[in-house]
Amino acid sequence: MRSWSLFAWLGNRVRANYGIARLTLLATTPVMFALAVTTREAFQDPPGGIDTPPWFVGCYLAVRCCYLGLRLYSSPQLRARDVLALTVPPVLAAGLLTGAALLPRTALPTDRIIAAQVLLWVRAGIVDYVVSQALPLPRGPSRSPRRFRRGDRGHPG
Known about the structure:
69% helix, Low temperature requirement protein A, Low_temperature_requirement_A
Protein backbone atom coordinates (compact mmCIF):
# COMPACT_ATOMS: atom_id res chain seq x y z
CA MET A 1 0.00 0.00 0.00
CA ARG A 2 1.40 3.37 0.89
CA SER A 3 3.23 2.56 4.11
CA TRP A 4 6.61 3.95 3.15
CA SER A 5 5.14 7.19 1.86
CA LEU A 6 3.43 7.66 5.23
CA PHE A 7 6.73 7.18 7.04
CA ALA A 8 8.51 9.48 4.60
CA TRP A 9 5.94 12.18 5.33
CA LEU A 10 6.19 11.60 9.07
CA GLY A 11 10.00 11.51 8.90
CA ASN A 12 9.89 15.00 7.45
CA ARG A 13 7.69 16.15 10.32
CA VAL A 14 9.72 14.62 13.18
CA ARG A 15 13.42 13.95 13.54
CA ALA A 16 13.63 10.36 12.37
CA ASN A 17 17.12 9.78 13.73
CA TYR A 18 16.29 10.43 17.42
CA GLY A 19 14.22 8.87 20.15
CA ILE A 20 11.03 6.97 19.60
CA ALA A 21 10.90 7.85 15.91
CA ARG A 22 14.16 5.98 15.35
CA LEU A 23 12.95 2.97 17.32
CA THR A 24 9.67 2.92 15.39
CA LEU A 25 11.45 3.04 12.04
CA LEU A 26 13.87 0.31 13.14
CA ALA A 27 10.96 -1.88 14.31
CA THR A 28 9.00 -1.26 11.12
CA THR A 29 11.81 -2.17 8.73
CA PRO A 30 11.78 -5.97 9.35
CA VAL A 31 7.99 -5.96 9.32
CA MET A 32 8.07 -4.22 5.92
CA PHE A 33 10.54 -6.86 4.76
CA ALA A 34 8.15 -9.62 5.85
CA LEU A 35 5.33 -7.74 4.11
CA ALA A 36 7.36 -7.60 0.90
CA VAL A 37 8.27 -11.29 1.12
CA THR A 38 4.66 -12.37 1.66
CA THR A 39 3.21 -10.18 -1.09
CA ARG A 40 4.01 -12.71 -3.82
CA GLU A 41 1.92 -15.41 -2.14
CA ALA A 42 -0.78 -13.16 -0.70
CA PHE A 43 -3.32 -14.26 -3.33
CA GLN A 44 -2.65 -17.98 -3.60
CA ASP A 45 -0.67 -19.73 -0.94
CA PRO A 46 1.19 -22.80 -2.23
CA PRO A 47 0.91 -25.92 -0.08
CA GLY A 48 3.39 -26.26 2.77
CA GLY A 49 5.05 -23.59 4.83
CA ILE A 50 3.26 -20.81 6.65
CA ASP A 51 -0.19 -19.56 5.78
CA THR A 52 1.00 -16.48 3.88
CA PRO A 53 -2.18 -14.40 3.26
CA PRO A 54 -2.96 -13.89 6.98
CA TRP A 55 0.73 -13.04 7.58
CA PHE A 56 0.48 -10.36 4.91
CA VAL A 57 -2.54 -8.80 6.61
CA GLY A 58 -0.82 -9.01 10.01
CA CYS A 59 2.30 -7.28 8.67
CA TYR A 60 0.16 -4.58 7.07
CA LEU A 61 -1.62 -3.96 10.37
CA ALA A 62 1.66 -3.91 12.30
CA VAL A 63 3.14 -1.28 9.98
CA ARG A 64 0.01 0.85 10.18
CA CYS A 65 -0.06 0.55 14.00
CA CYS A 66 3.58 1.66 14.19
CA TYR A 67 2.76 4.64 12.00
CA LEU A 68 -0.31 5.51 14.05
CA GLY A 69 1.61 5.27 17.32
CA LEU A 70 4.34 7.56 16.07
CA ARG A 71 1.81 9.95 14.58
CA LEU A 72 -0.08 10.14 17.88
CA TYR A 73 3.17 10.68 19.77
CA SER A 74 4.33 13.43 17.45
CA SER A 75 0.94 15.19 17.22
CA PRO A 76 -0.46 15.53 20.75
CA GLN A 77 -2.97 18.16 19.59
CA LEU A 78 -5.06 15.56 17.71
CA ARG A 79 -8.64 15.26 18.88
CA ALA A 80 -10.70 12.06 19.05
CA ARG A 81 -12.23 12.87 15.66
CA ASP A 82 -8.73 13.14 14.15
CA VAL A 83 -7.66 9.83 15.69
CA LEU A 84 -10.75 8.18 14.20
CA ALA A 85 -9.91 9.68 10.81
CA LEU A 86 -6.44 8.15 11.09
CA THR A 87 -7.58 4.72 12.26
CA VAL A 88 -10.77 3.97 10.32
CA PRO A 89 -9.26 3.72 6.78
CA PRO A 90 -6.52 1.20 7.69
CA VAL A 91 -8.94 -0.87 9.76
CA LEU A 92 -11.41 -1.01 6.86
CA ALA A 93 -8.57 -1.83 4.45
CA ALA A 94 -7.35 -4.58 6.78
CA GLY A 95 -10.87 -6.03 6.85
CA LEU A 96 -10.96 -6.09 3.05
CA LEU A 97 -7.49 -7.68 2.91
CA THR A 98 -8.58 -10.27 5.48
CA GLY A 99 -11.56 -11.12 3.30
CA ALA A 100 -9.22 -11.53 0.32
CA ALA A 101 -6.92 -13.73 2.41
CA LEU A 102 -9.76 -16.01 3.51
CA LEU A 103 -11.40 -16.39 0.07
CA PRO A 104 -9.25 -19.39 -1.01
CA ARG A 105 -10.77 -21.36 1.88
CA THR A 106 -14.22 -21.13 0.27
CA ALA A 107 -15.71 -23.55 -2.24
CA LEU A 108 -15.84 -20.94 -5.03
CA PRO A 109 -14.21 -21.69 -8.38
CA THR A 110 -10.58 -20.53 -8.67
CA ASP A 111 -11.27 -17.90 -11.33
CA ARG A 112 -13.94 -16.28 -9.16
CA ILE A 113 -11.70 -16.36 -6.11
CA ILE A 114 -8.91 -14.56 -7.97
CA ALA A 115 -11.31 -11.97 -9.40
CA ALA A 116 -12.83 -11.35 -5.95
CA GLN A 117 -9.38 -11.08 -4.38
CA VAL A 118 -8.29 -8.49 -6.93
CA LEU A 119 -11.50 -6.54 -6.35
CA LEU A 120 -11.01 -6.62 -2.56
CA TRP A 121 -7.36 -5.53 -2.89
CA VAL A 122 -8.32 -2.64 -5.17
CA ARG A 123 -11.02 -1.57 -2.74
CA ALA A 124 -8.56 -1.83 0.16
CA GLY A 125 -6.13 0.40 -1.70
CA ILE A 126 -8.86 2.91 -2.47
CA VAL A 127 -10.05 2.95 1.13
CA ASP A 128 -6.53 3.25 2.51
CA TYR A 129 -5.29 5.91 0.14
CA VAL A 130 -8.23 7.89 -1.23
CA VAL A 131 -10.42 7.87 1.87
CA SER A 132 -7.54 8.76 4.17
CA GLN A 133 -6.61 11.65 1.86
CA ALA A 134 -10.20 12.91 1.78
CA LEU A 135 -10.70 12.93 5.55
CA PRO A 136 -10.06 16.28 7.19
CA LEU A 137 -7.06 16.33 9.50
CA PRO A 138 -5.40 19.32 11.08
CA ARG A 139 -2.32 20.42 9.19
CA GLY A 140 -0.70 21.97 12.23
CA PRO A 141 2.88 21.28 13.24
CA SER A 142 4.02 18.02 14.75
CA ARG A 143 6.57 18.16 17.47
CA SER A 144 9.97 16.68 16.94
CA PRO A 145 10.90 14.13 19.60
CA ARG A 146 14.33 15.78 20.04
CA ARG A 147 12.85 19.25 20.44
CA PHE A 148 10.25 17.92 22.85
CA ARG A 149 12.95 16.38 25.07
CA ARG A 150 14.80 19.68 25.22
CA GLY A 151 11.63 21.58 25.95
CA ASP A 152 12.32 23.75 22.89
CA ARG A 153 9.04 23.25 21.05
CA GLY A 154 8.99 26.18 18.68
CA HIS A 155 12.55 26.63 17.47
CA PRO A 156 14.35 24.44 14.91
CA GLY A 157 17.71 22.96 15.62
